[in-house]
User: Fold this.
Amino acid sequence: MTNTNSNNATLADFIWKNADVLWGNFKHVDFGKVILPFTLLRRLECVLEPTRTQVASTHQAMANQGVDMDLILPPITGYPFYNTSNYDLGSLGATRTRQNLEDYISSFSANARVIFEQFDFANTIARMDRGGVLYKICQNFAAIDMHPNTVPERTMSNVYEHLIRKFGAEVNEAAEDFMTPRDVVHLAIELLLAPDEKIFVNNPGLITTLYDPTIGTSGFISDGMEHVDTLRDRYGNAPTIIPYGQELEPETHAVALASMLLKTIPTDPGRDLSQNIKLGSTLSNDQLANEKFNYCVSNPPFGKKWEMDQKAVVKEHTDQKFEGRFGPKLPRVSDGSMLFLLHLLSKLEDPEKGGGRAAIVLSGSPLFNGGAGQGESEIRRHLLEKDVVEAIIALPQEIFFRTGIATYIWILSNKKPKHRKGKVQLINATDMYEALRKSEGNKRRKISDDQIRDIVTMYSDCEASKKSLIMDAQDFGYRRIKVLRPLRMKIVISDAGFEKLFEEKAWAKRSEDQRSAWTDLLREAMSSEHDWHWVESFAKDAAKKDTTLGKVDTALIKSFRAAFGVRDPELEPVVDKKGKVIVDDDMTDYENVPLGIDIQDYLVTEVLPHADDAYIDETFKDETDEGVGVVGYEINFNRYFYEYQPPRDLEEIDTDLNAVEARIAAMLAEVTE
Assistant:
């Protein structure tokens, strides 16, 4: 079975058919624990096959000489790993398959052996052996040619993607929730690297770094390295790109390790790139804490809670403030996407060392969630006021496997060229897609290669057009002001007021006798209107004369005012004992004033024509700003790209309705014949 590289799905389907052998011994949920590690094992085996005999003989000759095999054998294999066993999947035998396979796995160098440890492969092998399926699976995989020359890395990434989505679909789990489709991966990498192609080809000795804090199966990293390889093929030279990453899930991390073991860099072919791929939670345990990178890319999970990381993140935020990664206020614990925005910003290489650029795929919520002063808004404010948001690209819907929601690619940069300083480019690519012939879960569309080039060109050109807006960073900001109205209210005892009073909590706490007595007293005052302060003196005087009414507290007075208060715009504002105007809390409102517009001017033009007694609360202020009000930022794509669609002509609508009615009538006639 060596001709499977012609079709990604064919190869993946062939591998998946091994699941038929597992029926009865493994549940669907466990198929991936068998099929993925065997896929990785076969790929590593194919790479080592040409040098297997030489490695085995060299190992045998030097085994007792006290030499470090990690120095001797990788130069022979041409990769940073090796296997000294005499076995391969095709020669394990049918009688001692388990023992021989265990010996085979243990004979890998430590950097490859860890892949199978993270899959807990030893227990899987034992279980397969007990079920009598181990030999058959080994033989099946031995028949597949998975050498990189036959199955390139991008094809292999497609296979991993297909298999992982298959596992998820079979058990109705969200295994593919965090899979990034290949078209989105390719677009993000092109946006990230394409603008610097001239720098790359003009500096052939350049060494650059690419980092993914949510590396998954290494799709972004692999695509980035292939992008550079393409430049090398096209121009004869290209930079050396060193990959780095971190992954939370051990099994996915193992796939990334295998991918990195198969990669080499021209300037240092023996370098073990898998050592740069760390295991653990990036937010709470950044294992590359002291590193910065030239390029960063990520697709963090959409809408995933970060409560697992909360203690460590809050501590870093509190202790390190802006010296750490999470200086602004923190977002709500229900979604950690914006923490990755801050994390990537902290990972960009210092500007004096050339700076860095990042691409991150996010849902729409980071654009607008959270009001002024809240964590999400403060993070947007930090990014925009720091002038590190270079562009945001709105992608088509229905391009992810498990969700059809709107998604966006943010481009961050601390090395903006002069023409981008203080600017943010918004690109509307929502209608740039092709429909898939067959849906893959929620994925019904893809971004074609031509469309990717068009989007990248729009970004690189940085010119205003119908689909590309060049905006000032300040355009997204606003100052939220608190608008007050004076209390203009009188007291009118009425039957309608009594109905309201019966619903007040303070009234309900009174005894039945007390409520009856108060009702009688209040009804005696129904013949005339009273000013706002009358209630307090009336109630206190009554309680002094009749102690059975109970204590008159603030809650009771508030309940009387809530029930019997009547607004009258013709009244003078109510003032307190010091002569200060009392605010009508129920009339309080908030206004978002765009930055750059004076709030008093805004009050005059936008508020006073509708409420001529309104005024601004001067005490409502930002914690970090001397101005009145609270600064907020939001990025509303719909507002900026909205196009008015006039309603259809009524005659046209009537024509369509008549046509529909005619079709329905015809269908009914067929049924009744």
User: Anything to note?
Assistant: The longest helix spans residues 650-672. The two ends are 58 Å apart (CA to CA). The CA atoms of residues 124 and 513 lie 77 Å apart. Confidence is low (pLDDT under 50) at residues 1-6, 169-177.
